[in-house]
Every structure is written in C-alpha cells, then in structure tokens.
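Quick start: read one record
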Amino acid sequence: MAYNLLKGKKGIIFGALDENSIAWKTAERVHEEGGTFVLTNAPVAMRLGQINELAKKTGSQIIPADATSEEDLDNLVAKSLELLGGKIDFVLHAIGMSVNVRKGRAYTDEKYDFTTKGWDVSALSFHKVMQSLHKADAMQEWGSIVALTYMAAQRVFPDYNDMADNKAYLESVARSFGYFFGKKNKVRVNTISQSPTPTTAGQGVKGFDGFISYAEKMSPLGNASALDCADYTITLFSDLTRKVTMQNLFHDGGFSSTGVSQEVIEKFTEQ
C-alpha cells in the first residue's frame, strides 16, 4: 500500500545491484511513494547487476560513479541536480565490500591493502558522498541521508571479519557529519542496523545461512526482510521523521535487545 509519502521528493540511490538488494527494494518503494531519483553504482557492479531493468521499471536515470572517487561523486551530484531539476531530498548509501572476506582471509590474517580498499568502499565512501553533497549545497532543507549498517559494529560476529570495523567507522561518520549537516540546513543523517539479509553481498559472509537461522530464533519478531528495510527507509526519507538524526536505528525484529530466546535455550538443552 502506498501513501504518497515522498510525492515531489528527489534523491540518489547507491548500490542497487539486483532484486535481492535492499537498495533495489528501496528504489521500488520510493517510486511507489511518488519519489523520483537517480540510480548509481560503480561501473563494475553495474556490469554484474541488472540496474538497467530497475531504471526502466521506475523511470529513473543512471549515472555511473565510483563512490571512492571524489571526482566521480562531484560529477554525480552535479548531474543529479540537473536531471532532477532541483536540490536533493534523500540519499541512500547501500554500499559494502570486504576484499579480505572475498579472498578468504581471516580477521587475524588480514592483508592490509585489502583492508584499506574495503574500508574505502564500505565506510569512507559515506563521508565522501556527504562531503560532495555538502560542498555543492545540494541537499534540500529537512532532507534525509541514510546508510545501511549491521550490529557487528557493536558486538563480535567472528566471520563478519573486517566489515565489522568498516561498519563502526560508517556509524561514526553518520554521527559526525550529521551534526554539520543538521546545523547547515537541517539535513538528517542516520544509519539503519538491519537484520542479516540474504543479499548478494551478505551471502558472501562465511556461515551466512547459520547466521540468519540464529538471528531468526533470537528475534521476537523474526528477521527483517529487504522489503521491510525498504519500508523503514521510506519513513526516514519522509517528513514524518524530521527530528530523527545522528542515530543508529536497529531494524532487526528485536534481536539487538534480546539476551537469549526460549528457542535458543531449547536448542542447547535438547537431550
């Protein structure tokens, strides 16, 4: 059901790869709620995904951009302002990648060149995106910027590897830049700490199926799906959350507040 929550609003959505991705689901929901947007991803990711299909479905333009490149991001912001015909109301940063994970390197045996690359893509890129927006004065008053994170930023999940460090940095950037964007023109900056979600990126984590099963048993409401996350993101893009900023918002069915569930106790006390 649509409520026209984003009617007349314009934005940029990073990271839509395929129909399993949270960015893809968010783009569909933004379109349903009356918003218009530019889609962007790194050229290599665009070759691997089906972003052209999403653009056609939502009537959106695509601007390729490497989120680690300041030049690409400045160009993305300038072209988006031109294509959308005005300042930007919302931005979704849904980018994450660990070369150490992809190459099977343990957290205790990181290759630091891999670490630096993953940090740049997954975390520092969020600062770069906001810096480009800030310098261009591209955000509309009361706009909203959202990035996706995971609770491994606060608690240890051994196989999440260096992505946990990346997410901790990402959340810090949201708080710090959120202050300056709030003072400048009342722009909100938040992160959503989502349940483990079977996206293309998520499934690259070792033991991911067990990860999802455990979280499902621990969460009173069960895991939040990619579509659930898209719906939550819509509320943060809307005018209904104008005073919510610099927050890390848990969207995980109650997992983050549950010490142990009856299902988990029963699993470990089976005779």
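The domain at 10-268 is CATH 3.40.50.720 (Rossmann fold).
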